[in-house]
Design brief:
Blueprint: H1 7-37, H2 41-53, H3 55-66, H4 71-95, H5 109-129, E1 137-138, E2 141-142, H6 145-165, H7 182-214, H8 218-230, H9 232-243, H10 247-271, H11 285-305, H12 317-336
Helix pairs in contact: 1-2, 1-7, 1-9, 2-6, 2-9, 2-10, 3-4, 3-7, 3-10, 4-8, 4-9, 4-10, 4-11, 4-12, 5-6, 5-10, 5-11, 6-10, 7-8, 8-12, 9-10, 11-12
């Protein structure tokens, strides 16, 4: 292979490195904003950090459907990020040495996980159904896209009022100098978000070149390769939050990111000019969507049951179940990609 053959992989690695590093800074400045405004850790994780860490998916998706003309990469990135975020719970559980992480978080996250099941399941159903007689559109936009946006707003409103009815837990102390003001935190937050956005916009270009070189289908590249890269901010944010004893911030960020990823799909469909995005992607993406629903259901059971038993002293049956669903869905996408 020539040196030029490695260029897409090099570009991909650089973008992933920038996303991971800037994502960590987003955590710190997001927590600074939380401390200066007095908002709860769960709410900061659900809205502010979840939105920021999902910016790579947003700009990757928009770039995929407008510049790279690769709708499968856009859909695979958004849905793949959802299952990867839920798989990150396995890592958090392993890092929570004293007790399972599912025992350390508020049950209020059940509300967000439930909305995640509704929205992700709806996307999976649309992928299967809109390629037939149910492909209703308003211009080039799917008729179902406004409902996805509406359900997302309903989920955010419900979470907001739930937080108001329950005692708020302040976000963990951050590593920013104590003399930083709200204006400085917001400016630095916006700067880190800009880096994440720029790197995210370049990812689908590198992903398209990798797919062409390897012969892999775009659904496989988007779901596994690009989704893993765009999920780096969530990984750095959640692991950092757990180590600073803020498990609610960690879980809130993951579940909030999953809801925002559904909003990303709605945005992608809006800017995709050839027609409905759901009708132009591989039906294999429905496997990823339904895997996300199953994993969210497992999380809800864990938050209600709060299991304490662990295998090998570090992982419980909940984490093993989550990991199994993730690996099986990834293998199904891999087979379809070949």
């Amino acid at each position: 292979m020539t040196l030029w053959a490695f260029m897409p992989w090099f570009e991909f690695a650089i973008c992933a490195l920038l996303i991971g590093r800037a994502g960590y800074r987003l955590t710190l400045y997001g927590e600074a904003i939380s401390r200066l405004t007095g908002l709860s850790a769960s709410w900061i994780g659900l809205v502010l950090l979840a939105t920021a860490t999902s910016l790579p998916e947003l700009f990757t998706g928009v770039s995929s459907v407008t510049i790279a003309n690769a709708p499968n990469i856009a859909m695979g990135d958004a849905l793949g990020s959802i299952v990867i975020n839920l798989a990150l719970l396995v890592v958090l559980d392993g890092l929570s040495r004293d007790e399972p992480v599912y025992r350390r978080v508020d049950q209020g996250h059940i509300l967000t996980a439930g909305f995640g099941i509704i929205l992700t399941g709806l996307v999976g159903a649309l992928i299967l159904e809109t390629r037939d007689d149910l492909n209703f559109r308003i211009g080039h936009v799917s008729l179902y896209t406004p409902f996805l946006i509406l359900f997302y707003l309903v989920a955010m409103r419900a979470a907001f009022f739930y937080e108001r009815r329950h005692s708020a837990t302040p976000a963990a102390e951050d590593e920013i100098a104590p003399d930083i003001g709200l204006r400085g935190a917001v400016i630095r937050y916006a700067g880190a978000a800009a880096i994440v956005s720029g790197a995210g916009a370049l990812l689908p270009i590198a992903g398209t070149q990798i797919a062409q070189q390897t012969g892999w289908q775009y659904s496989f590249v988007g779901t596994l390769l690009i989704a893993a890269a765009t999920s780096l901010p969530e990984a750095t944010v959640t692991i950092s939050a757990l180590r600073r004893n803020a498990p609610n911030l960690a879980i809130g960020t993951l579940l909030g990111s999953n809801l925002f990823d559904i909003l990303v799909i709605a945005v992608d469909d809006t800017v995709y000019r050839p027609g409905s995005l759901f009708a132009h992607v591989s039906p294999a993406h429905a496997v990823t969507a339904f895997a996300g629903c199953i994993m969210s259901g497992i999380l809800i059971v864990a938050l209600l049951y709060r299991p304490g038993n662990r295998f090998f002293g570090w992982v419980g049956w909940v984490s093993l179940a989550l990991l199994s669903v993730y690996l099986l869905s990834s293998f199904a996408i891999y087979l379809h990609g070949h």
